[in-house]
Amino acid sequence: MSGFEHYEKEVADLDREIRRYAAICGVNLDSRAEVEACMADHRAESARESLRGLLVLRLKLETEMLELGMRPPSLGQIGGE
Predict the structure, then answer these.
(1) Whole-prediction pTM value?
(2) Is the pLDDT of residue 80 over 80?
């Protein structure tokens, strides 16, 4: 186990930070193209790098949840609170 024990809380906390950085960077989380463009963009911009890191962490959390038979909310579902 990676250290995630309270998956619902972990994903909610992570999603809150992703929404925050997406807003700062102007990335629409409902747009797969915008999310993919953000992941491919390696500018030195601090907020965008933070968002990229959070998205990678989200992917790792989703993978672990799926391996345990859990169903994480999709990235498009986190656009609002």
Answers:
(1) 0.80
(2) no
Three-state SS for 78?
Answer: helix
- Residue 21 CA to residue 79 CA, distance in Å, equals 12
**What residues contact residue 45 under an 8 Å CB cut-off, 6+ apart?**
25
| Mean pLDDT value across residues 22-28 | 93
Tokens of 54: 């959070």
DSSP string, 3-68: S---HHHHHHHHHHHHHHHHHHHT--TT-HHHHHHHHH---S-HHHHHHHHHHHHHHHHHHHHHHT
Tokens (6 digits) for 36: 């993919």
Q: What is the pLDDT of residue 77?
A: 59
The residue ranking higher by pLDDT, 6 or 24, is 24
CB atoms within 10 A of CB 62: 19
